From TrEMBL:
Coiled-coil ranges (or none): none
Pfam families on file: BiPBP_C, Transgly, Transpeptidase
InterPro entries the UniProt entry points to: Beta-lactam/transpept-like (IPR012338), Glyco_trans_51 (IPR001264), Glycosyltr_51/Transpeptidase (IPR050396), Lysozyme-like_dom_sf (IPR023346), PBP_1c (IPR011815), PBP_C (IPR009647), PBP_transglycosylase (IPR036950), PCN-bd_Tpept (IPR001460)
Known EC number: 2.4.99.28
Keywords, alphabetical: Carboxypeptidase, Glycosyltransferase, Hydrolase, Multifunctional enzyme, Protease, Transferase
Positions with biased composition (Basic and acidic residues): 20-34
Family of the protein in this entry: In the N-terminal section; belongs to the glycosyltransferase 51 family.
Lineage: Bacteria, Pseudomonadati, Pseudomonadota, Alphaproteobacteria, Hyphomicrobiales
A GO biological-process term: proteolysis
Protein name in the entry: peptidoglycan glycosyltransferase
Catalytic activity: [GlcNAc-(1->4)-Mur2Ac(oyl-L-Ala-gamma-D-Glu-L-Lys-D-Ala-D-Ala)](n)-di-trans,octa-cis-undecaprenyl diphosphate + beta-D-GlcNAc-(1->4)-Mur2Ac(oyl-L-Ala-gamma-D-Glu-L-Lys-D-Ala-D-Ala)-di-trans,octa-cis-undecaprenyl diphosphate = [GlcNAc-(1->4)-Mur2Ac(oyl-L-Ala-gamma-D-Glu-L-Lys-D-Ala-D-Ala)](n+1)-di-trans,octa-cis-undecaprenyl diphosphate + di-trans,octa-cis-undecaprenyl diphosphate + H(+)
Name of the gene: pbpC
Pathway: Cell wall biogenesis; peptidoglycan biosynthesis
Region annotated Disordered, chain positions: 1-60
Length: 749
């Protein structure tokens, strides 16, 4: 039979020259990049064409042409059938353990992300499920990647037939016909070669995945494993890295961008190739519009939205709390803390703002406790975890520092509890020496005379506080603080003395907050709860009895507020440590306790760092950010309301059994060296510092030398020496046997 003359000449796809992918309508120019989620064949990979695709000579007879046409028509279907049967050779069990590896994340009590951690191999692969992803993204993903995702069993015969036909037509692999399950299989079990055997293995694995995980499991696996460039894997990590938000709510343009990136993750990274990323996003928008997922108008509008051009840092809220929680429970993939994410973010911004305003090198810490449960609602350990200039990596909520006057309320509570005083008991604020050696002064170097205990605590007067401490006993006071759960640190494990009333000990911000929360709870100190859902343990620790705790709370509620703050809203107390190293403010109402600290993490002095002027405004601002109206502490039964004159006689004035020396020293004791206000270089930074000579004139030996109210030497001579442990301002005092004293403030360098 003669050869037909009306058959078309052989096309390039039938074995002739390859058609450039950039010139072929509807195809995509491959981008040279790292392995993508979907196998992208490379025209330069050198994959040989199968024998059926060899070019038939134009001189072949008509019978040969007819058989060739039949062969061409049968190739896609034969290829699809062969691929559907899958790889006949036995395969080892599919190991899903590496694919199930996720980044550990820390969330707040509502499940909002606070801080993720990279996996052991440095990848960011955050836990994610389809329920947490914008439905618009899921619709675009299936329309673009796997139109019949809901209907096939892991392999789409129609897609494979199309891929076979494109292979036949172009003489090389144009698309792999991969479904989402096949792409997950390639990600779970990556293989570098691009061959028919690799494709058969991928199909087999895809069917295994569909069988074991189901449709929902396959989709969740894709959402978690899809590559997005560099160490970023999964749609959740990509949304945070490129868009700065969770993938639960995305714009049309954002959803299309996240669909497009896994096809060539390195070549389309927005932070490196924003123009390529934009073109890929627009192709997804066109296909989504053509397939009815979005309207053409939505696609046109989405194309006008700019593509992000930089990678954003991952969230790092509550960095210190998150790090400690993961260290305590490294096996948990998701750690839920008791923190309120909204409040945490607001207070972190507040701490950073106020620390910057206070001066260079200053750190700040804020802790918020739920008084009912003891749960930590916010924990700001520093103004910025990565701010090396402020030593931001140090969690100052756990640092031991001198509290200044912040512990005075607990002296009053112990005195009230033991019947030694009442808020209206009269105290003397006059120059006095206690135990013939200790002569405290008020912060402003003035005296108020006779005042009530209420007024003395509200004004934070030093002499009445020391007088009450002498009455209750320093050792008993320290024992009560420790019984309340506070880790009190005394200098060199010395016996408690009267200076502890004014901050001569060490305590953490966390313990201080717990003690104040105890006042709000009627004296019962809560256990700190840091994990969401954890049952609040029943606390048996007490810092005061209910009536005494209420007396203190009611007194502190009337303390003068800082400038521009309303009075009588919260009960609060401030503190300033010796040498202006620490500024404190702790306040509470019935609902919460807020504790604030500012200072340098290295302990250096900061002139002008005073609790009332620096920390108290932060405290009141933090309370306002919590929201709601402050609630006063409930008044327990058994309280006594009376004026000073109406009190029972034993409570009208503080009764003391120990006589005190007159307020003025008779011996002319004074410090000759170092002079007051001087700067002394002892060689810090040049090896071991030299000792600082201390010299006194006059007085009655033996002399007791004190630095920042801590004794450093007792000598019968009028000369001594002290080796500083750091730089900064120090107060050096000397007391003689007759009670005479003198003090100077110097700067040690």
């Amino acid at each position: 039979m003669p050869e037909p003359t009306d058959l078309p000449p052989p096309s390039a796809g039938e074995g002739g020259p390859r058609v450039s992918e950039g010139r072929e309508r509807g195809t995509q120019v491959p981008e040279k990049a790292r392995p993508s989620c979907k196998a992208q064949p490379d025209p330069e990979a050198g994959v040989p064409s199968p024998p059926l695709l060899r070019r038939v000579p134009s001189s072949a007879e008509g019978g040969g042409r007819a058989w060739r046409g039949l062969a061409l028509a049968a190739v896609p279907f034969a290829a699809s059938a062969a691929l559907w049967l899958a790889w006949p050779a036995p395969l080892p069990p599919l190991d899903l353990a590496p694919a199930n590896l996720r980044s550990t994340i820390v969330t707040d009590r509502a499940g909002q992300l606070l801080r993720p951690f990279a996996t052991a191999d440095g990848r960011w692969r955050l836990p994610v499920a389809a329920a947490g992803v914008d439905p618009r993204f899921l619709a675009m993903l299936t329309a673009y990647e796997d139109r019949r995702f809901a209907d096939h069993a892991g392999v789409d015969p129609a897609a494979l037939a199309r891929a076979g036909w494109q292979w036949l037509r172009h003489g090389r692999i144009v698309s792999g016909g991969s479904t989402l399950a096949m792409q997950v299989a390639r990600l779970v079990e990556p293989r570098p070669e691009r061959s028919l055997s690799a494709k058969l293995r991928q199909i087999r694995r895809a069917r295994e995945l569909e069988s074991s995980l189901g449709k929902a499991g396959v989709l969740d696996a894709y959402l978690a494993l899809a590559p997005y460039g560099g160490p970023v894997e999964g749609v959740r990590a990509a949304a945070l890295a490129y868009l700065g938000r969770e993938p639960a709510r995305l714009s049309t343009a954002e959803a299309a961008l996240l669909v497009a990136l896994p096809q060539a993750p390195e070549a389309r990274r927005p932070d490196r190739h924003p123009e390529r990323a934009r073109r890929a996003r627009d192709r997804v928008l066109d296909i989504a519009a053509a397939r009815g997922v979005i309207t053409p108008a939505e696609a046109r509008t989405a194309k006008t939205e700019p593509v992000p051009s930089e990678r954003r840092p991952f969230p790092m809220r509550a960095a210190h709390a998150a790090e400690a929680a993961v260290a305590a429970d490294p096996a948990s993939p998701i750690v839920r803390l008791s923190l309120d994410g909204r409040l945490q973010a607001s207070l972190e911004a507040l701490a950073a703002e106020r620390a910057a305003a206070a001066g260079p090198g200053l750190s700040a810490a804020i802790l918020v406790l739920d008084n009912r449960t003891g749960a930590v609602l916010a924990q700001v350990g520093s103004p910025g975890y990565l701010d090396a200039s402020r030593r931001g990596a140090i969690d100052m909520t756990l640092a031991v520092r001198s509290p200044g006057s912040a512990l005075k309320p607990f002296i009053y509570a112990l005195a009230f509890e033991n019947g030694l005083a009442h808020p209206e008991t009269l105290l003397e604020d006059r120059p006095a020496r206690f135990a013939a050696t200790y002569a405290p002064e008020n912060f402003d170097l003035t005296y108020q005379g006779t005042v009530t205990a209420r007024r003395a605590l509200q004004l934070s007067l030093n002499v009445p506080a020391v007088e009450l401490l002498e009455a209750v006993g320093p050792a008993r006071f320290i024992a009560r603080l420790r019984a309340g759960g506070a880790g009190i640190i005394l200098p060199r494990e010395a016996a408690p003395g009267l200076p502890v009333a004014l901050g001569g000990l060490g305590i953490t911000l966390t313990d201080l907050a717990r003690l104040y929360a105890g006042l709000a709870r009627g004296g019962s100190v809560p256990e700190v709860v840091r994990r969401a859902g954890a049952a609040a343990p029943e606390s048996e620790r007490r810092i005061a009895e209910p009536v005494a705790a209420w007396y203190v709370a009611d007194t502190l509620r009337g303390a003068p507020p800082p400038e521009n703050a309303l009075p009588n809203r919260i009960a609060y107390k401030t503190g300033t440590s010796f040498g202006y190293r620490d500024a404190w403010a702790v306040g509470f109402d019935r609902r919460i306790t807020v504790a604030v600290w500012l200072g340098r993490a290295d302990g250096a002095a900061v002139p002008g760092l005073v609790g009332r002027g620096v920390a108290a405004p932060v405290l009141f601002d933090a309370f306002s950010r919590f929201g709601g109206e402050p609630e006063p502490v409930a008044r327990p039964p058994g309280t006594l309301s009376a004026t000073s004159a109406a009190l029972p006689p034993p409570l009208r004035h503080l009764r003391a059994d120990i006589p005190r020396a007159p307020g003025q020293a008779t011996a002319p004791l004074r410090i000759a060296y170092p002079p007051d206000g001087s700067r002394v270089d002892v060689g810090h930074g040049e090896g071991a510092p030299a000792g600082l000579a201390l010299k006194a004139l006059g007085g009655v030996p033996p002399l007791t030398w004190m630095v920042n109210s801590l004794p450093v030497d007792v000598s019968a001579r009028r000369q001594s020496a002290w080796v500083p442990d750091g730089s900064g301002f120090v107060r050096i005092s000397v007391i003689d046997a007759a009670g005479g004293s003198d003090s100077v403030v110097v700067r040690v360098e």
